[in-house]
Amino acid sequence: MAKKPRHVSETPATQWLRAHGIPFGEHPYDYVDRGGAAESARQLGVDAHHVVKTLVMQDDRGQPLLVLMHGDRQVSTKALARAIAVKSVEACSVEAAQRHSGYLVGGTSPFGTRKALPVWVEATVLALPRIWINGGRRGFLVSLDPSLLVTALNARTVVCAL
């Protein structure tokens, strides 16, 4: 017997996507603490390179920003800082990340954040045919055309993958 699809309730991210007329697929999975993109990719049967993680970081002045990176890569904070012309960049604390984004860490989406934040996307993400990115809740990804990151979020490209 086929598995019954799970009902997925609205999140600020899905509300934002719908309000902006952006088509997306919904992909719930069983959240595993510290499982990250590799675990969601495994459960959904997609390549971890196509799962995009949303990282809340801050520059040397304490200004928050979002970085969208392949699930199987890390951010070179030195390369990122050079690219965006600041002295340094570091990950925010869990508390600061949640305060800036409005989402629980592990469920951070770049869509529908509490306040508008600058968004930087690893340039190679835009070459993918489709991406899976957090939909605003732990255990929930949305899939969409990566070009929408630039058009809908005004994301700027950067090369900072390790």
Describe this structure in words.
By secondary structure, the chain is an alpha/beta fold. The chain is built from five helices and eight strands. It has helices at about 10-20, 35-45, 75-85, 95-100, 145-155; strands at about 25-30, 50-60, 65-70, 90, 120, 130-135, 140-145, 155-160. Strands 1, 2, 3, 4, 5, 6, 7 and 8 form an eight-stranded mixed sheet that branches. The radius of gyration is 15 Å and the shape is globular. The relative contact order is 0.23.
List keywords for this structure.
162 residues, alpha/beta, eight-stranded mixed β-sheet, 8 strands, globular
Task: Please give the oligomerization state of what you see.
Answer: single chain
Kindly, what is the distance between the CA atoms of the first and last residues, rounded to a whole number of angstroms? 43 Å
Task: Note the beta-strand portion.
Answer: 25-35%
Q: Report the radius of gyration as a whole number of Å.
A: 15 Å
Largest sheet: 8 strands, mixed
| Overall geometric form | globular
